[in-house]
Structure formats: C-alpha cells, structure tokens
Amino acid sequence: MLWIAPAEKDAVAASLEKRLWDAADQFRANSGLKAQEYSGPILGLIFLRFADVRFAARRAALEKAGATSRRGSRVDDPAAYHAEGVLYLAAEARFDYLLGLPEAADIGAKVNASMRAVEKHNPQLNGVLPKTFNLFTSALLKGLLKKMSEIPATLDFDAFGRIYEYFLGAFAMTEGQGGGEFYTPASIVRLLAEVIEPYHGRIFDPACGSGGMFVQSARFVAEHQANPAAELSICGVEKTDETGRLCRLNLAVHGLEGDIRHGGNVNSYYDDPHAATGQFDFVLANPPFNVNAVDKERLKDMVGAGRRYPFGLPRTDNGNYLWIQLFYSALNAKGRAGFVMANSASDARSSEQELRQQLIQAKAVDVMVAVGPNMFYTVTLPCTLWFFDRGKAKTKRADTVLFIDARHIYR
What we know:
By secondary structure, the protein is of the alpha/beta class. The protein has two domains: 7-155, Ferritin; 179-406, Vaccinia Virus protein VP39 (Rossmann fold). It is 42% helix and 13% strand. The chain is built from 13 helices and eight strands. The protein has helices spanning 7-31, 35-65, 78-82, 95-99, 107-121, 138-148, 157-175, 186-196, 212-223, 228-231, 241-253, 320-330, 350-361; strands at residues 201-205, 232-238, 259-262, 280-285, 331-342, 365-371, 383-389, 402-406. The chain has an eight-stranded mixed beta sheet with strand order 3-2-1-4-5-7-6-8. Helix 1 (7-31) runs antiparallel to helix 6, helix 2 (35-65) packs antiparallel against helix 7 and helix 8 (186-196) packs across helix 9. The chain starts with 6 loop residues before the first helix and ends in a 5-residue tail after the last strand. Residues 1-7 have low confidence and may be disordered.
C-alpha cells in the first residue's frame, strides 16, 4: 500500500489530530498523572485502533474469499493476516469489544488483557505494548475509547501514521527536556532522508529514539512508488527500554518491522549488537550531543582501520567524535549517512580537529548544512547536519564539500 495521502485526507487527519489531542489533554487533567505516565497508554490505544482497522479489512477479504477444499476458511488463522503484513487480533483484543464494555466492568484490566493478546499472536510486538491501563478509572477509559473510535476506518495508512507522529511530537513538547530525547522534529528528519535518498538497502540508527528516522525513510521510499517493507531492512539501537518500545510500536503503526535492540545494558559506545562495521547502506541519526564520562578504556580494542573508531579516540571528554566515527564506520563502500551534530563539532580544536582532518582526507564528508536555533525541544542552540558518502572518493566530487547556510531558510 502506498502512503501518499490526498490533500483532503491530510485535512481530515489534521482536524482529527487536534480533536484527539484535546481529548488526551482532558484525560491528563482528570487522571492527575504526569505526561510520561499517560502518554504510553494513549499511544497504545491509537495503535490498537490502527491495528483493528487493518485487521477488519483483511478479515472481510478472507470472509469474501470463503473456504477452500484444501485449507478451509482462514478467517481465524493468524498466518493469513501476517502474510499480508497485518496484525492478528483475537476477539478480546478488538476495538469494538472494548468499546462495548459497560462502565461497571474493570475496563483497565480488560484493555491490559487485550494488549497481552495482541502480543501473544504477534510475537514481533512481544513486551512492547503498554499494560498500565489499570491506573485509570473505567469512566475515563470509556471516554477515551469513544474518542479514539472517531478515527474513521476510511483513513489511509499514512494518515494513521501522521496522527501517531503528531502525538509523539506533542508528548515530547509536554514532557520537556526528557521528552525531546526520543523525538527529532519531522522537518529535520525529512531533510536528512531527502539528501541521502534511501531508496533500497540496509538502514541503521544507533541512537534510534522513537524511530522517526526509519519512518521517514519508509515514507521516502513510498513517495517514489515502492513498498518500504520490501525495500528497507531496519536496524536500530536505543539505550532506554521505554523509548525502544516506542520505536517498535511506531514501526508497527507504519506497517514496518525492524531489529531494534534496546534496554538492558545496550549502549552504542561500547556495544555493537548488529555487528555494524561496514555493513550498512544508510545511517540516519540524531545522537545525544556533548556526552561526557565515556569510559575510553572500554573502547581501546575498537580503534583502528576497519574497526568502530577508525581514526582514534578524542582526548577531550566529549562523545561527539565517537558518534561521528560510529556513523562513518557503519557504512559500506558506497554507504551514505545523514545525522544531526552539535555546532561545536564543526570547528573543535586539538584532537577533535585531527579526527576531523582524517575524515576530510578520507573524502567521505559530502555536505554540511547549518541549521537555525530552536529546532529541538532539548536544545535551543543551532546545530549542523552532516552528510557522509563513502562512494564519493571515486567520483568527480571527491575533493569537494558542499556547505549550505540554512540558518534563515525555514518555515
């Protein structure tokens, strides 16, 4: 299914976004919970509505097809849904069932059970869905379910995804400093994807947050008339377990799957769960800036040509040039990367200048874009977008770097 939504559908989605967010805000006010406590359940209900719409459409098609002499009816066969990239929903996990529950029922427990049922029949979502609906009264949940049911079944794939992304952004703004860690503004993500053009191949984000880089890459593929699920192989790493679950849920809302390693002791500086060196066609990332206290003793065996830190370790207590080298080293011989970086990394002195010189001499630095301030929820300072192209060294552009000053070019 292509994701290009007609203008009128975009308008419907925009109107819905505001109505749904107003309802969510009312929900927060009446629940007395913090944003991070109610954001997960609300995103979970948006996801369930999306999954239910796709399930119902597939079920109707299977019912119309009827039974065959060889296999019988496949209406209740999870494999018949999974084959089309659709999640299978047991009866107790369907939206209409939850919507029809009386207020006297323990609706929180029922919704928790529905989330467990979804995970049971769709193993790729195991451990991902929220199960804290018992924190809310049945009356609050009943009202929220009714509001989510207003998302029409006729809404297309992309519009559902946009509603989910709208909520991710709104929650990031509401949660402030902590919330912005999982969210990169869509305008930045789109620019990164448009420059590196991830038409087909393996894509990696070692600081993947809620998965916006993957979603935008998939949208880029769809806008060029191809199926993202068939064209892209997605791999990510996320240190925070809760955010890693958000990423997997975001992928599912967009009909995607990926290998996302998160939580536990996974840390991209020290750990390489995807054996990434030289393996990826594309890298897209917005890493945390200016991280200090990285234990460089643990990195010494990863330094050198063909390793994760090919140009050496910075002497300063700053992780920016560790990230930059992780992005560079993950690319294959023709790989391209686009990432967000602190402005200070572009002209840092001492050992960081030496590392930057090696990057330039490797002829991989392709484009640098200066971006204006206040583009991120966590950082007010301006940033720079870096682009690598490992195949550039064998082209006419080998000795050139394009610099773009976009500090005053934006809507």
